[in-house]
């Protein structure tokens, strides 16, 4: 990877797209997101494999490609020692490397997981085998697969809040209850960051957390999400208190600048880290 660092901050373009299946939508959306932001943001760019092997291993579609690309990102993050990260993806699986790195760099890290879905399946419980439905489970339980998690410390469930969540598989619902993970659906999303103003906080932002009436250009849309303005207000509060140490924007499938411009309130926060 070519590194692009501003002081202690890394801007990472990480188009891990095989984690969302074999279609081209996530790759095209990630490229468009990068190109839209590139005039204002110099990104680290991964060296993409010429062929992305979709073979299923250990219950995960594209397992070897995902493992290699996570290792590549992890090496870049560790080598640069970045303590602030903005990541443009790709699928949600990028967080295994990014959050894993920040858990080491920022003791006590808390995570706001904006996502319509839980991302809490295991390879055994996943109905699809797509890794973008599993990364949060690997962060909470890195022992599930050390080749994927690479010895990262476990995320404490008490330091995790799910925001905008409204489409869970039954095993995810059971896991949330068992681990007592706090969940804030769209109606309560504004409460999710309460008490975390002291940070450090990382924001995972899957665009399907948004209401598809406002932004439908995502891989897996779910009705009745959060407004862009409401999300920006909450994240902005963390930024103003200097609690925000990282943010991702993932799962975009829009390819035109006019559509991406709707996300400017979120881009301003991410670029202002």
Descriptive account of the structure:
Helices cover 32% and strands 15% of the residues. By secondary structure, it is an alpha/beta fold. It has an eight-stranded mixed β-sheet, sandwiched between helices. Strands 3-4 form a two-stranded antiparallel ribbon. The protein has one domain (5-271): Ureohydrolase domain (Arginase, Chain A, 3-Layer(aba) Sandwich). A hairpin with a 2-residue loop joins β1 and β2. The two termini are 21 Å apart. It is built from nine helices and ten strands. The mean pLDDT is 92. The protein is globular and about 40 Å long.
What distinguishing features does this structure have?
273 residues, globular, alpha/beta, eight-stranded mixed β-sheet, two-stranded antiparallel ribbon, single chain, Arginase, Chain A
